[in-house]
Amino acid sequence: MRTDLAVIGAGPAGLAAALAASARGVRATLLDAATQPGGQFYRQPAAGLGAGRPEALHHRWRTWERLRDGLAAGPVRVLTDHHVWCVERTPDGFTVHALLGPEQEESVEVQARTVLLATGGYEQVLPFPGWTLPGVVTAGGAQAMLKGGLVVPGHRAVVAGTGPLLLPVATGLAAAGVEVAALVESTGPRRLARHAPALAGKLAEGAGHAAGLLRHRIPVLTRHTVVRAHGEDRLTGVTVAALDADGHVRPGTERHLPCDTLAAGHGMLPHTDLAESLGCRLDGLAVAVDTEQRTDVPGVWAAGEATGIGGAALSLAEGHIAGCSVAAHLHGAAPGPAPAALKARAALQRSAAALESAYAPPAHWPEQLTDDTVVCRCEEVTVGAVREALDLGAGDERTVKLLTRAGMGWCQGRMCGTAVAGLAGCAPTPAKRPFARPVPLGVLARQHPQEGLS
């Protein structure tokens, strides 16, 4: 299969990029691991579930309708259930390798002249005692269950952590009939107020979420954190406590909240596996791009959360700019994205930077971790084992990994990498992986058959 542009990721950035490029005469192919386009933000329930009003689960539904209808009416080839595990550079461009379907045992290839990475982001979850109990889910996981499966994770929930995602998760669960016992946010109002000028464009959205909290009578505990989850076979409640100005837990402020669900999250991190395997330069934890969303690898563009966490509106603007730039490159013309997209991107990037600063996790969260707290769930590595490695001289994620196996499991450190870095007192670093997801050995063998062996 050949195409001018392979867009990897069918969330807001990927959809905007594919449509913008296609409108300018580019043969675009959109690949995504999900069964339907939309990404996490526009995740849709399966048709068989018979959702009567799916728009009730979403913000900016009209924007999604425009994207969906544009995709249906245009020539963009959409390949869902395609799990991209590698992108190779070739003399003529790139080969995109993807595993098919839920079994992911068969690989297909797409030959492309150019590639646009719209791989999105994933949740950052910091461990705490009891976080592995059944009933503890990520904030995004709870939202995905609601949007994609029309199910709720429990009857009485606490939503906790930090970041703007907690607001729609709390109001969404409440609207679906869940009793939300509290929204526990580690950031305080004063911290947000310091960034008020940059967040002016978010006021309407914030006011809408605030109205939802009031309508559903959801208590909000700011400058609080979960210090422990309780239960034997499953979650029965959580202990929360107040934080002082430096991020330390204030003794004597603990309170118990009975619940059967805890939706916890501490922001998002960019997905950069494919970009790293292609040799793209990173800026911190995000893919570095120029004003046209080009990476430093010729023929590769990136847009959306992979280039920095900023939300759906910023992803749409970046995707549109990237799609226009790809089209200009392939046609040998000067790039011509709409000035509105450039202006929107600049304003939204300022808002994103302000939100990142305002919603930083508590500085001293590792202080609450007991030695028996599991930090790496895949390999069952405890905080105590990590601390022993640090006592032996480990000072970074890689050395801790070598001494404890933390990060060697199925998720390849995506869940525990930030926690290990926090315990080690170092900044998180991107993990260099040859493949973006686990690949069956049979697939690899078929990619490079050995001939002449007896």
UniProtKB/TrEMBL annotation:
Classification via InterPro entries: BFD-like_2Fe2S-bd_dom, BFD-like_2Fe2S-bd_dom_sf, FAD/NAD-bd_sf, FAD/NAD-binding_dom, Metab_Enz_Cyan_OpOx_G3PDH, Opine_Oxase_asu/HCN_bsu
Residue ranges of every copy of the FAD/NAD(P)-binding domain listed in the record: 4-307
Keywords, alphabetical: Oxidoreductase
Ranges for domain BFD-like [2Fe-2S]-binding: 374-421
Key word Transmembrane helix present: no
Signal peptide (residue range): none
Pfam family, one: Pyr_redox_2
GO molecular function: oxidoreductase activity
Keyword Oxidoreductase applies: yes
Protein name: Thioredoxin reductase
Source organism phylogeny: Bacteria, Bacillati, Actinomycetota, Actinomycetes, Kitasatosporales
